[in-house]
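Bug report (template v2)

What were you trying to do?
Predict the complex of my protein with pantoate.

What happened?
Run completed; filing so the output is reviewed.

Input:
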Amino acid sequence: MEIAKTIKKAADLIKTARRRNKIIGFVPTMGALHKGHCSLMETSVKKCGCTVVSIFVNPTQFGPREDFKNYPRTLSKDLEICEDKGVDLVFVPTVKQMYHGKNLTWVKVEKLTLPLCGRFRPGHFDGVTTICAKLFNIVNPDFAFFGQKDAQQAIVLKTMVDDLNFPLKIITCPTIREKDGLAVSSRNKYLTPEQRKQAPVIYKALCNARNLIQSGTKNTERIKTEIKNTIEKAASAEIQYIDILDAGSLEELENIKGKTLIAVAVLFGPARLIDNILIDTKS
Ligand code: PAF
């Protein structure tokens, strides 16, 4: 496994892989690698002859009062995981490498970045799309792999790739969960043991919503109330949003129809946890 700290070294190694006719798979990460990232790497390794992982805690996607400084950084363990998963190249740039110039250019996806997390994290998605555009230009992958847990991120990036003609395909992989249903996330590290015990309530509430829909309920206010009542049973939970939207346009729905995204953000102390389920009612 190669490790590149500079853009030039990464680009040179990838060019060599391309010359050898390798399909390039790319897993962009902010490190603190967990089972979710592992499943993205495994999918890439199976599908592509060369898998590139980037590890970069991107400052431009954090708000001024967010956790950029405290975000877990576990590089040596991350590199061991990448090696173990059969990754070919890990790109670990510094902030100076990635934001070396005047940084006056931003990639902004409109409309889809306004609801859900966009309402509570202004500028977040501009940071994500800008860094991913830069990384895509450096790595030039055939496929890039993202998790369904960050559903809005995946939809926004698919739109960016489509609108700006990036020659790659985004693959969204299923959310990986702990045994009790909690979606795996780097931010789970912030939970106290008591909050960790309570946090599976999020997925439980989403599963209850799915059951309600399967038994015929269509009214989204009714479903949101059910989700809220379930989550509020956890004493430490503070709901940020519960939204039910069309899974393509991210427009709010009054009644469940077609491909629907049910997404929530819940604060447990300093941990902001997001999760979602996709429902397809085919009507
Ligand atoms: O999902 C993440 O870890 C980040 O948002 C990403 C895609 C690596 C961009 O910094």
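What did the reviewer find?
The chain has ten helices and nine strands. Residues 28-30, 58, 61, 128, 131-132, 150, 153 surround pantoate (CB under 6 Å).
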